[in-house]
Amino acid sequence: MNARKVILDCDPGIDDALALMLALSLPGLDVVGITVVCGNVPVEKGVKNALKILELMNRTEIPVYAGEARPLVRPYVDAMDTHGEDGLGEAGFPDPSVSCSSQDAVSFLADRLSAEEELSVIALGPMTNLARLLERSPEAFARIQELVSMGGTYKSHGNCSPVAEYNYWCDPDAAAKVYEAYASMPELSGKQIHMIGLDVTRKIVLTPNLIEYMKRIHPVLGGKIEAITRFYLDFHWQQEGIIGCVTNDPLAVAYFADRSLCSGFDAYTAVETEGISYGQTLVDAYDFWKKPHNSYILTETDPFRFWLLFCCQVLGGDESAVRHIFSQILTEEVPA
Ligand code: RIB
Ligand code: CA
After folding, report:
1. Closest by Cα among 273, 40, 12, 9 to 127
2. Angle at 265 between CA 122 and CA 31, to 5 degrees
3. What is the pLDDT of residues 23-56, one digit of tens each?
4. What is the distance in angstroms between the CA of the first residue and the CA of the last residue of the chain?
5. Is ligand 1 within 6 A of the CB of residue 317?
6. pLDDT tens digits, residue range 206-231?
7. 124 within ligand 1 shell (Cβ under 6 A)
């Protein structure tokens, strides 16, 4: 079967970096480009980090494009407290020896989507680039074959407010525009945003035991994963009192590649842009508003299968050996 063409729109970002490593390792994905948006770190840092990960993975043939430097309306708020000043856990990766494209991200998205028949987008950051694409070229936007977005939350609590998850909180106006487009644009009729929210990503916890094992499977990449997640582990201990770190973005990539990894339900979803709950995803699970089901909300996932995929595909682990070790280390339930 031919690999599926995909653009990764991201804000690297520690978990974005893990997601990029996974996407670059899955034979079923053909990453045709990486577009970067302001989010965890300012866009210029995110571009450098995407290039650093491409160099680490020996994939510098993949082009990187700089996108929007600030949200549509709200002031830009980064997440360097979580991801470190450099956005990669202050792990000290060397500056990249390659550069990004001179073309901006939104123009690349418009050009590539206009030219391709079957091209999907996995959005791992605020949706600012996608909202600008929608404004600039709605016909190109409508040609996105499938949009998987890490963001939002259905029943789980937020991570930027009691109800809001960072990607949609950082740019709620962009998220609202994109979700509304899937509910109202005739060209998008029948298509949905696959929302990989905190309900499922909170179940994907990278623990010290897993990191130790990753280093034994692949000392170099396992060591790099340890280096960039150390900061993230400390943040989670201080903020959430857990040993381990919630790795949000990689699940969106894994789900794109293997739909059986998550399950959920259709619904109309809107994003609040004003007031105390801005950034909240209002999932109409009981169809009060009788609006088009613009989203597929993922609520269940299998951490064991996710980590098995990651350890085998990214690190080259042997499945039966990995299963054996997992039976020892993936027993504890981490509080959601
Ligand atoms: O809320 C988690 C999301 O926000 C992740 O994508 C993380 O990288 C940040 O972008
Ligand atoms: Ca991200």
Report:
1. 9
2. 15
3. 999 999 999 999 999 999 999 999 999 999 999 9
4. 37
5. no
6. 999 999 999 999 999 999 999 999 99
7. yes
